[in-house]
Amino acid sequence: MSRVQLVSSPQGPSDAALVVAARAGEQWAREAIYRRYSGLAFGMVYRLLGRDHEIDDLVQECFAQALANLHRLDDPQALGAWLGSLIVRTTHKMLRRRAVATRLGLRKPMDPLDADRVVSPNAPADVQAELRAIYRIIENLPTRARIALVLRRVEGMSQEEVAEAMGVSLSTAKRLLADGEERLREALRDPPPRSTP
Asked: What DSSP string describes the chain?
């Protein structure tokens, strides 16, 4: 099973039952899908974006797209995996739009990400260092390399799962990951200077 699948609660109707009911126009089923997956969706979007001021809008957009397109879901039991892939693609589009608007001068560059807001203080020191390095470099990565690196290093997906989630070939995913990994190695070799109080 792909790790991109957002894991649902074992209580209540199955994902397949919710999808069938939602397709039939049952409002309760649509609400149940949102309740089941919204927390996990917010977490994934936060880790991909690294920003919190647009997360609510992006998650709402993802669920609106998902609910409007449930008829396209071939396997209703695969709702979590399908929703995870939709989140990845929608986040990628947002990051691409931001990059274009910034290059055109229509949007000012974002402030650097505060890694301490993303990295758990309870994580082992080596994991904290790696996550800080990842979040230090992602703002300067091309959007697809950024998403691939976060899916691999933060979400813990395999290369095959990254390719599936991003809707790209395995060779493209490997290339994107190689680019991100090389930049990550450079960041880990050259950590930023520590500021003194």
From this structure: --TTSPPPPSSSS-HHHHHHHHHTT-HHHHHHHHHHHHHHHHHHHHHHH--SSSHHHHHHHHHHHHHHTGGG-S-GGGHHHHHHHHHHHHHHHHHHHHHHHHHTTSSPPPPPP-GGGTS-TTS-HHHHHHHHHHHHHGGGS-HHHHHHHHHHHTS---HHHHHHHHT--HHHHHHHHHHHHHHHHHHHHSPPPPPP-
Task: With beta carbons less than 8 A apart as the criterion, state whether 8 and 39 touch.
Answer: no
Read off the pTM.
0.78
The rounded distance, in Å, linking the Cα atoms of 113 and 56 is 18
The 10s digit of each residue's pLDDT in 128-175 is: 888 888 887 887 788 899 899 999 988 999 999 999 999 999 999 999
